[in-house]
Amino acid sequence: MEDPELFRQGGFRLAARLAGVGDIRGTDEQIKRFRRFAQAEDPAADAVVAMINRMPPGHGHRLFGEALEHGIEHLDNPPPELASFFERVEATPYWVDHERIERGARAITRTGLLGLFPLGDMSLMGGYLASRATKPLVGTGEIEHMASRRLVETAAWWIDVTTPGRLRHGQSGYVSALRVRLVHAHVRAAMNRRQDWDYETWDKPVNQIQTTGTLLLFSLVYVLGTQLLGVRYTERERGDILHLWRYVGWLLGIDDELLPATEQDAWRLLWLLAATEFIPDEDSKRLAKALLVTHEAIGYGRGTLGKVLSHVSVRVHSSISRLVLGKTNADFLELPDDPIAQTAVVTAAAVNFAAETALRYVPGINSLREVIGGIERRHYVTRLGKVFQLDPTYARHMRAA
To answer: Closest by alpha carbon to 376, among 365, 384, 387, 364?
Structure first.
């Protein structure tokens, strides 16, 4: 299979070369093996959802919540599907290193709110290029009709799982990862019930490849995005960030074969993903537009100044997206092409890079920046949580599915 034109001209391949990872292209056999995961789902989580759907309303979710918060041993005679799920989840893989996870979380935290820009402008926007993965979003109306809430909920979840200490067993990040895994299973069950789901064109809904794509967008593409904005990481920090997300991916039910152990693995996996999944369509454009409208609407107030800030916000976010997605992909998504805004973003990134370089020689600066970044992130979640009334149990998503 040849590279799709959109990928060849996009920013990922150039970024891989700049990262020094060499030729990351997969062979035909590797592509075929990778594509088999488009028919793979998450049997353990799917069995739990089937169990929940057989029970009286609310009962199954209550059992899942109790097992999640207190452990499966807290339940008397738990259903076998639930017992099997938690036995698998609690059997932590040999490769999990919580010291590395903590270091990765601290490296992410010190970027503060700057780290949220790649989340929306590169990870979410880049995900819209994978049109097969967007079909459940379009089908449920979640992104197009509730784009602002979804963006904020995604950011709050991302902050939760990347905060130091929260991926330990029973902590909020650990719990959030497993709750989202169950949401995926609910959405998958809902899509499988639809008469209009096109399995031949769209593959299985919320399949292993699509979940892996989300993982890579939140990990490798996040690292790339923050670096393009001037953030500097050591090689060990980049590895630790990817290790954190490897564990999150395992909690989300991703097959071991699709969990990259190294940065080189992640780049090769991203190539396979982009070469086979980045097939944007009209839904991709609709979702990209909805995300831009969200950037325009959030938090700038009314009046002339508010309108100006909203306009600038869209141009800045679009310019950041163009940095990593490339001109062809960005043009297809119909992102505004503003040379002035792009120059401003590149200039700000260069200034930030220079400041980061200088700060590396200041003793204790990273610890201070981790504290400041943590405060910024907590304030962000608290402020927007009041506006959008965030629900950490994701009950609304499960009801909608």
So the answer is: 384
Task: Verify that 110 and 174 share a domain, yes or no.
Answer: yes
Determine the Cα–Cα distance for residues 362 and 155; give it in Å rounded to an integer: 30
Query: What's the pLDDT tens digit per position in 324-353?
Result: 888 889 999 999 999 999 999 999 999 999
Evaluate whether residue 272 is within a structural domain: yes
Number of domains the chain contains: 2
- Residues 323 and 354 reside in one and the same domain: yes
Distance CA 243, CA 238 (A): 9
Same domain, 132 and 265: yes
Quick check: 206 and 72 in contact, CB under 8 A? no
Say how many residues make up the chain: 401
Amino acid at position 64, single letter:
F
The verdict on 243 and 351 lying in the same domain is yes
Distance CA 335, CA 25 (A): 28
Sequence-ordered alpha helix ranges (H) in 162-258: 172-192, 199-202, 208-218, 220-228, 235-251
Residue 273 in 3-state DSSP?
Answer: helix
pLDDT, one tens digit per residue, over 188-231 is 999 999 999 999 999 999 999 999 999 999 999 999 999 999 99
Inside any domain, residue 63: yes
Provide the token pair at 321. Answer: 């997206």
- Cα maximum dimension of the chain: 64
Do 85 and 120 reside in the same domain of the chain? no
Three-state DSSP class for 131?
Answer: helix
DSSP, collapsed to helix, strand or coil, labels residue 353 as helix
Q: How far, in Å, CA of 122 to CA of 113, rounded?
A: 15
Rounded Cα gap, residues 140 and 166, in angstroms: 30
- Residue 44 near residue 88 (C-beta atoms within 8 A): yes
Look at residue 19 in the predicted model and tell me its pLDDT.
Answer: 61
Token pair 């163009």: residue = 322
Of 239, 278, 275, 274, whose CA–CA distance to 260 is shortest?
A: 239
Range of the domain at 268: 5-26+98-400
Q: Residue 340 falls within a domain, yes or no?
A: yes
